[in-house]
Amino acid sequence: MENNPNSSIFNFGPDEETKSNLSVIARWANINAIVGFIGIGVTIISFIATMNSLGRYAGSFAGFGMANIALSVAISLALNITLFMAASNVKKAIDNSSQAHFEIGITKFATYFKVAGIITIIVLVVLVFFLMLGILSGRGRGF
Amino acid sequence: MEDSQYDHLTEMDLQLEGEVRHQFANAAIWSKFISIVVFSACGLMLVLGIMGGMRFFNSMKRLGGIGYLFGNFTGTILLLVILFVAAAISLVYYFLFNFSRKIKSALISEDINELNAGLRSLKIFFIITTVFSILSLFNTIAKLVW
Q: Which domain holds residue A52?
């Protein structure tokens, strides 16, 4: 068997291009998360402004709207915190060559995609449910 | 002895072993699922858009005269807008799909070039989604202010 003096026991290790790509991904993911946090704040302000302009007419809509906004904010916050942590850990890993931070960062990225995937499944289930409801109510009316 | 062990550990660079490989594989699976769902949603949006456009066009045609012209023009514009939006969303999520495909292939073949190609796709995906997020944020703020 031929021995290659340049080969290492870790053939599948990140090179300079990998690190550069990871660094750019971390930077943009960080900006994405920060924009997400600002977006959450703007959504809350926008909701409060709408409720104020509706005044006493808000009534029953306020409760439904509040629950809706609370759910959206919680999901968005969880996703953006995960993305922010992923980005900052990957950045630390590249800057300090820290394997521990690298593991945490990639795990957080995987969690981010996992949570986004689970939300996609939930949205799909809700859409199918409403579609079935629409079809059934259409049949009930004789369409 | 302890110091010497520590030195060896700090000399090591980042490794794509164990947990990191497992998490890359997880990210690839979920990103593939998300991109396929988005591609399907774009296809559905296109079909529903064409059906809605046809209905609108037919109802305007029945009015005749200016209604026919208006329906023809608006129907075409509506179709073009839907086509553009579906193509733009599909293009963005193509990069996520490509990331998933390349990472999976890189983990199987242990090819660093495939891994870099996958990360390049993820980089483009994050750049585009971030730019869209910023534009969307500006739009929301503008609506709120004016």
A: 16-140
Confirm whether A4 is domain-assigned. no
In this prediction, the answer to ipTM > 0.90 reads no
Provide, as residue numbers in chain B, all residues whose Cβ is less than 8 Å from the Cβ of A39: 133, 136-137, 140
Judge whether B142 is closer than 8 Å to chain A, CB to CB: no
C-alpha of B143 from chain center: 26
CA dihedral (B5, B6, B7, B8) in degrees, to 10, reads 50
* Interval B108-123: pLDDT, tens: 998 899 999 999 999 9
Inspect the interface and report whether the beta carbons of A13 and B23 lie closer than 8 Å.
no
A133 within domain boundaries: yes
pLDDT band at B144 (very low <50, low <70, confident <90, very high): confident
DSSP class of A56: G
What is the spatial distance between Cα B23 and Cα A104, in angstroms, rounded to a whole number? 10
Instruction: Collapse the DSSP code of B48 into the 3-class scheme (helix H, G, I; strand E, B; otherwise coil) and give the result.
Output: helix
Q: How far apart are CA B96 and CA B145, in angstroms?
A: 34
pLDDT for res B74: 75
Chain A residues within 8 A of B135 when measuring between CB atoms: none
Start-to-end CA span in chain B (Å): 68
